[in-house]
Amino acid sequence: MSFQSERYGKYLLRLADSSDNEGIREIFESGSFAGGMNVQFLRGEQPLESFEADGDGAYILVAEDTQENRLIAVGGAVVRTEYLGGDASKCAYLTGLKIHHDYRGRLTFIQRAYKIMGELVSDCAATYTTILDGNTGVIKMLEKRRKNMPEYRYLGHYTTYCMGRGKRLIEVEKNNTHGFDVLMKTHFANRDLTPCNPDYQGFGKKDFYCVRGGDGEIIACCFIGDQSRTKYYKMCSYNGVYKLVSHLPTALLGYPSFPKAGEIIRSGVISNLYVRGNDAELCRRFLLSAAYESGFELLLWGGADADPLCRALNRMKTVKYGSRLYEVLWNGKTDSAIRSETGVEAALL
């Protein structure tokens, strides 16, 4: 598609370019995840590079107020190669629409933006997205079928777990990936939406941790990466019970430490988590040991609630937040491309 721009009164809808980085950054900084913990998700000084780091490329649309000469909204899709039915397929992850705080409720051409985005990703085998549980207004709007809007088909609930510093319970091997390529073909390839490339820049600078059995084969493994060059979180404030909990020595109880208000959260992210037989106790011991070796005070991992490893994480001391996972179906399409257990990585959301 050769879309470049469209005008709606004083607003201009167009594809973003490198000159828009500052305006996109200001949009991200104008909002936050409301709730008990008020957190900002930020993509740094070069947000376009951050989007592109999460895949093979990205289509990012921006809306500009031409009278005020400022960007007022940004949304798009990151395109990457992921497994579908065991095959490497071109997929698109919708990053969600972010509107500058000053302009919320004032945009009237959102449906047109969706139509354009659908055409941009029309060659993708599947499009999907996640929406935080707390965004009830957005969920209600998108789950209701509307003319000229894609269908948001609910695939299941997705939980992101935040775990603390960990402790050495078993010996873990570091940066010996021998055998991991076999796991990609025999395990991860059978999980829809697992990235075929475990080395996208968006995973950050990472290390590989594993435990091997007596035969030398991997029985538990994961990568732990530092994404701070392309994305990070800022703790803005605490509300309700979290205002009290944030002052408690939670790390002594095995839970993550709560950062101070206004602090950038230094976190690592877990990807390609595998545990043979989905053994919950092995998963717990391995993750706590790998977390300890990584040196991060806080680690993130996410999985669809149907993922057997979620049962293991639910037995650990973590702080959780939930999202709804959707397949986005364009132009009246009814057949789902996403059919098996999913391997969506929280690192690339």
Annotation keywords:
349 residues; alpha+beta; 3-stranded antiparallel sheet; 8 helices; 17 strands
Topology, please?
Blueprint lengths: L4 E4 L2 E5 L5 H9 L7 E6 L4 H7 L3 E9 L4 E15 L2 E8 L3 E2 L10 H11 L5 E7 L3 H8 L7 E13 L9 E2 L5 H7 L18 E8 L5 E9 L5 E7 L2 H5 L18 E2 L2 E8 L4 H15 L4 E6 L3 H7 L3 E12 L20
Parallel strand pairs: 6-8, 15-16
Antiparallel strand pairs: 1-2, 2-4, 3-13, 4-5, 5-6, 5-7, 8-17, 9-16, 9-17, 10-11, 11-12, 12-15, 13-14
Helix pairs in contact: 7-8
Main beta sheet: 14 strands, mixed
Average pLDDT metric: 93
Strand runs, count: 17
User: Given the C-alpha coordinates, what overall shape results?
Assistant: globular
SSE class: alpha+beta
Fold and architecture overview:
With about 350 residues, this protein is of the alpha+beta class. It has helices spanning about 20-30, 45-55, 110-120, 135-145, 180-185, 240-245, 280-295, 310-315, and strands at about 5-10, 10-15, 35-40, 55-65, 70-85, 85-95, 100, 125-130, 150-165, 175, 205-210, 220-225, 230-240, 265, 270-275, 300-305, 320-330. The strands form 2 sheets. Strands 1, 2, 4, 5, 6, 7, 8, 9, 10, 11, 12, 15, 16 and 17 form a 14-stranded mixed β-sheet that branches. It has a 3-stranded antiparallel β-sheet with strand order 3-13-14. Helix 7 packs across helix 8. It is globular and about 65 Å long. The mean pLDDT is about 95.
